[in-house]
Design a protein that fits this description.
mainly alpha; binds calcium ion; 42% helix
Length: 109
């Protein structure tokens, strides 16, 4: 039973990580100079399960950039939040993604 639960936990974790990797690839495809990684949307670069808190850019993406919130597979239109300055550091999200700085971290601009 323990092995089964461990396997189940691994699958759940992998699915979450894979979903995140897919979003990361999507972001890089749309903003090739963005240097997108986990910390682009999350507080911690290597977020563990249950500790994947979103940073201000990640929160704006979830709140304002999802094309159809009811769809099972979420598609993001980041253009909807290009003009915002999610982390309030004086640079828009588009400026930060283009420059390769982090739009969700005010210490990166
Ligand atoms: Ca920033």
């Amino acid at each position: 039973m323990k092995k089964f639960l461990a396997a189940l936990a691994m699958i759940a974790f992998s699915t979450t990580v894979l979903a995140t990797m897919e979003l990361q690839k999507d972001l890089i495809a749309k903003y090739p100079t963005s240097k997108a990684n986990c910390a682009t949307c999350h507080v911690k670069k290597m977020a563990k399960k249950g500790d994947a808190e979103l940073n201000p850019f990640g929160k704006d993406a979830v709140a304002k950039a999802i094309v159809d919130p009811k769809a099972e597979k979420k598609v993001y239109d980041y253009k909807k939040i290009d003009a915002l300055d999610s982390d309030k550091d004086g640079k828009t999200n588009l400026e930060e993604l283009t420059a390769g700085t982090n739009p969700g971290d005010p210490a990166s601009k």
